[in-house]
Structures are given as C-alpha cells and as structure tokens.
Amino acid sequence: SATAKIIDGKSIAKQIRDEISVEVSRMKDAIGVVPGLAVIIVGDRKDSATYVRNKRKACESVGINSFEVRLPEDSTEQDVVKFISEFNDDSSVHGILVQLPLPSHMNEEKILDAVRIEKDVDGFHPLNIGCLAMRGREPMFVPCTPKGCIELLHRSDISIKGKKAVVIGRSNIVGMPAALLLQNENATVSIVHSRTPNAEELTRQADIVIAAVGVPNMVKGNWIKPGAVVIDVGINPVEDAKSSRGYRLVGDVCYEEVVKVASAITPVPGGVGPMTIAMLLTNTLISAKRAHNFE
Ligand code: NDP
User: Fold this and answer.
1) Which residues form the Tetrahydrofolate dehydrogenase/cyclohydrolase catalytic domain (predicted)?
2) Pairwise CA distance, residues 225 & 201, whole Å
3) Which ligand 1 atom sits closest to the C-alpha of 218?
4) Ligand 1 centre and the CA of 169: distance in Å?
C-alpha cells in the first residue's frame, strides 16, 4: 500500500540554520552587529532545562550570541521582571524569551507583558497576536511553532491556498496562531477542540491537518482523508521499558496508521520540534536586522 512522504523537519531546520549563519556573518561583516538572544529560566524543570540547552546550542551553531539567566524556583515576579527590564534596555539583546511554564506562584501574563514587543521573539504578546489576526496588519513576530509548521509546508512544496485545513487544538502558543496563519495563506480553516463533538468527521474533510493537542496517538488512520498532509506538533512522553530513559516521545498522530493514508507526514521526533528552534533563530535575526535597519 501507499506510504506518505516523510517531511524531514530535522534536515529542513538544518538548511534554515545554514541560511541564518550566512546572514549573521553578512550582518557582522557589514555593520559589526551580532544578533543576541536572552533566555530566562525559572526553577529546575528537566524538560525546560533541555529546551533552554537546545536553544543555546542552536544559537552557537549559527553565530547568534546567547545570554542566559537562571533563577531559583522561589524567585519573585519582581526578580524576573528586573532581568527582563535589563534585557529590554540592552542593545546587544534582540530577542528575549521567558521559558514556560513559570512556577505556579507567578503571573505569566504580567511577566510576558514586561517583554518589549520589539524583542518578543516568541510572538506571544497580545499586540502581536492581534496583528496576526487582523487583515492588512503585520505582526512584529510570528510564534515559532506555528511558523515552523507553515515553513515545513512551504519548503515541501505543499500549496495551502484554497485548501481545507483543520487545526486540532486552540492554545495561544500553537493551535490558535496556526489557524490564523493557515487562514492568512488562504486556506479555509476549521478549529477542533475538546468540546468539538465530531472531531473525526471534521478532520476527515481536511486536505491539511495540524494536530496540537497533547494526547498521544489521538489522530487515527481513519480520521485522515486519503492523500491529506499531516503536521504533528505533539510531543508526548509515553512509558517505554525498552528505552534507557524509561520513556519515548510520540506525537498526537498515530504515525503507523496515518503514514499509510496521508500523502505527507511529519515524524515525532524530527518533525516540528527542530523547526520551532530554527524559527526562534529566524525571529532573532529578523529582530536584529530591524533594530539596525539592515536588509
Ligand atoms: P495545550 O494543552 O495548551 O492545548 C491543547 C489543545 O488541545 C486545547 O485547545 C484543547 O482543547 C485541545 N484538546 C485537548 N484534548 C482534546 C481532544 N480530546 N480532542 C480535541 N481537542 C483536544 O497544548 P499546547 O498547544 O501547548 O501543545 C500541544 C502539543 O504540542 C503538546 O503535545 C505539546 O507538548 C506540543 N508542543 C510541541 C512544540 C514543538 O516545538 N513541537 C511546541 C509546543 C507544544 P480546549 O481548548 O477545549 O481545552
């Protein structure tokens, strides 16, 4: 039976990092400016520490300066905001990222709002999202994970215009902005969430499916229209006695089933994950170029 084309996010992300490297050097040579990304991490969640380490390594790999602040779990909101303010005023920092989730005693909204919109490379500021949603407006930055999903489609020569798309999930950081981006690309978009009674049936009508749910293997083969394109954002640890870590990562899509039905699919890991970091570097470069009027 037919098998989907595997969309290789790892190699596409590598290609994007190579392009960024070239641009970083060109900028440095021309005006002596090196883009900089500051990351603030609070507490010692293992997964957050891994994400932050990967971001630092990615910066190094393309020549972007990285700055890191680690604060203890019991820090106050003011402690975090103090560092954000310093980075806001530091001209060598072009992007500021607060690693989420924050400890439960902190008000996430208040902290994220402290990041200057010109340095909000995560694109989570309400003004960014508002501009993304409005016709004729341009956001300062597009959130990295959904931007990575669209970039995967573009770089795999999958056209979006006029297609029926279904986004499963409506979170502020993935589902909702992914739906807005698909709409901006002229797809006709439906959003499926936990209160959608006929999720399967709706999903089966889609030419393009983006799954961002957080439920392992939820999207089965019979949810997918033959020939559809499936982007799996999910990163879910499931127990695996055979793995040395005791778990492995699976997506929101039942890969073994869907790979037989779809025309193209992203794997987990190695699909959207590496793209998220590549888009963070892209946004940092965009920010530095904008700050220095460099084209
Ligand atoms: P959230 O938990 O914030 O949002 C999940 C969304 O899925 C919600 O809108 C929820 O609906 C919906 N949902 C939950 N259960 C169902 C269901 N049974 N049927 C239909 N919809 C459902 O998650 P995130 O958006 O932050 O993350 C989603 C996944 O993507 C996770 O696995 C996460 O680890 C991964 N992720 C991967 C990234 C990457 O770089 N590849 C980056 C960020 C996240 P409702 O709104 O009604 O509650």
Assistant:
1) 7-122
2) 10
3) 18
4) 5
